[in-house]
Amino acid sequence: MKKILSIVPFLILLISFNSFAQNIQLKGKVIDEAKAPVGDMTVYLSKAKDSTLIQYATTDVSGLFTLDIKAVEEPSFLTFSLLGFKDKVETLDKITETKDLGTVVIENDSDVLSEIVIVTDTPIRVKNDTLEFNAKSFKVRPDANVEALLKELPGVEIDADKKITVNGKEVTQILVNGKPFFNSDGTIALQNLPADLIKKVQITDYKTKAEEFSGRKAKSDDASINLTIDEENNKGLMAKLSAGIGSIVDNANRYESSGLLNYFQGDRKISILASSNNINSEGFSMDELFDNMGGGRSQLFSFGGRSGGSGGFGSSTGITRTNMVGVNYSDQFFKDLETNASYYLKDTQNKNNNRSRVVNLLPDGDFITESQSQRLNNNTNHNANVRLEYKLNPTTKLFVNPQITANKNEFSSQSTSQSMDADGNLYNESDEKSFSSADSFTFTNSIQFNKKLNNNGKNFSVQLSNSNSKTTGTGNTNSATLFYQDNQQDDIRNQEEQSKSTADNYSITAEYSQPINNKAFIDLGYTFDYDNQTDLLNTYNFNETTNGFTDFNDRLSNQTHTNIVTNTPYVGINYQTDKIDWFVNSGVNVANYNASAAYMGTDYSVDKKFVSPYVRANFRYKLDRSKNISFNYNYNVTNPNATQILAYERLNDPLQTYIGNKELDQAKYHSLRLGYRNFNFQIRSGWMVFVNTSFYDSQIVSSTTFDENRKRTTTYQNVTGAYTTGLFANWNKSYKFNEHSIRYGIGANISYAKDKGYANGTLYDANGLTFRPNVYVSWDYGDLLSIAPSYNVSINNTKYHNYQLAATDYIKHNVMLQTTTYWPENFTWGNDFSYTYNTNIANGFKKDYFLWNTAISYTFLNKALTAKVKVYDLLNQNIGTSRTINPTTIVDQENTVLERYVMFSLTWKFNQFGNSSNNRNRGGRMGPPPRMMREL
Q: Where are the alpha helices (DSSP H) in 672-799?
């Protein structure tokens, strides 16, 4: 704990430094000629001699503004700018003390409807629901990427998991010139496009295709970012290649390599990327300093999604070797057709050794299961995706998005386990070797048709989607399970399994929107879903006479079929003003559910009709530009699957038998979300708080009983009264003066859940409380130094009812420090340091460890070539231990992790966009006082 607390004085010192660093203010109030306050006007201070940006702010709803600055000893310009008004510029000789400018009157611009060419631009503009940043107004290093640019924008936060939020809204889509760049989550663009390429960063609410075309406000509470590129830079070639070789671990060298090639020519964009490594980077990353280093700053950045991409193994444990290649093509073949296509191939191999200790909690006591396993997983995934957007006429648009995925997975495992009481008396033990191979093919498609019937919001849309998949597999199991109680017969197996499954889903949604007036709309809609799935499993025992798997085992073979047809008619009411935005969709969900199975010559079937309400509601109130309140409510239903509802035995696991329950009902629950956001651009400070709650009318839970050998028999029941509730809060503030850029914030996540279920025939309650506070600071000193310390703790406490065990708890501490220095010139040195401490982990598992990654680089040949030396886990202390608590188990485990290695790499970059010899010198140069030229 002393090690953790030692960082606190540093945090306090850094925060205190900011509290007195800015001691001068420029403030005032802006009104128009009618003496009405003008909100959302940009006010910025720039040096008179070269127009370098000093500070900026925007006026609030009352027209007030405040600029926090240090003393300015030279002449400067104070500029007021907003579309619809004439720009106003005031010249200030010196600013050595706080100055109140009083009331500033802005003249209306009578020519605002004329075509306008803006010679210079303001740092930030508010255009209706769009927040637009002028990229050249924000200082970043000459070689910085788009991610570094976003971090400089007020209100933009990027956390350790690379999740981006803007004024508290999560960003779920990032586009380049309005189109996806490989993928819509933008991971490739953020890491690999140079910041100098970007002209504007436009932030809006995320909209569906129908909302985009109809002009309606977004129902989503998420955000979308669009990166625009200057016309002069929207043509050219960019390449980036990297290769590294590392130290020998387990008789093999650690290695990494990656490459990205971009060709831009107007609407045509072609990108090719490739990557290969054996250091746990399953995606694509070319971080400026750490590249693909697992555990480094880029560890969670990946191609195909922030969690590792679709179709891959996606494991966060063990050692992963990854090879991947991808291509993206975007073009506009003719005026009204936009095309975007991508393909990638990803091949991964994951090796992991696992050791675990599981305390199984029962009402009449508990027992312990200790196990060890060695696993190898090979996965090959192909993914092809095409997006076509065709504007048939000014009022009609068609969007088509087919996707094909092919996957091959091979998995082998060898494991042993023992279950015993607290005194070490055995209940059972097992030894198993297994191998499985599966091939799957999936075709999905989405077709959206949108027809704008008038300009007042009358609209008609149809969306058709389908998903068709087929999977075939084979597997071998050789196992021995021994029982030590009640003279139960041992279970010895040597068998082969052959499986086949198909899944076909079709859905159509039609919606008609009718405006009542210019603020209210009625939506009439209907959704039809068809879901059909079959699963076949045949098991064969080994026959010593034939020396093959020829004896059919009917007890371990089955065939199931599920068919669900769902009809959902609904009506919606929408109301939208500048301040208030709400909608309520209500209807009925009618599901015709049919499931059947054939098992040991007997047919099982369930035929039910589930009728439930369909409710979706959202309310948002905008107090002013910086403050808003939101409320969401959904009523959700989930159908039971065939294995849960069909009452036949499944004996494929020697230690667990499953039996369905034909009386099972749907899972039904309410979910609510209440949030408040407040981000003030003037003081660059914001906070938000959200409360989420889910309450189950009916929940599907497992009901497990144990025999004398602790062999499980599990069926399923519906219970009511379970719920979860959580509160998330965050406050952050940033300062920028001279060469200093400082951010700091605190946050907390609190959740409380009541879980209910059955253990050994007894209904239990488990009440779990989790508290996760965190604090973070970052300080950038020009182009020389970046320091970012943070601390977070996770506190978990669970109390039980109807258990002999009254409660369980643990605490996990984590301290992190990231530093980067850019001096001397052309040198970069980065360090990622963390300390993790787990309390209450079981004996035999290490409780704490230090992880220190470091890298140093040198650029030469006019910054085209970079040489790097990186060391992962410099102290060689990394461990894979963890503790997980749920209502029925306490799991302590240890997995294989990367060990210390050294990597030497070379990176080559080539950029030739537009007139590259005249690259912009980003860093706040605003040009001369703003001028506007009107085309006549």
A: none
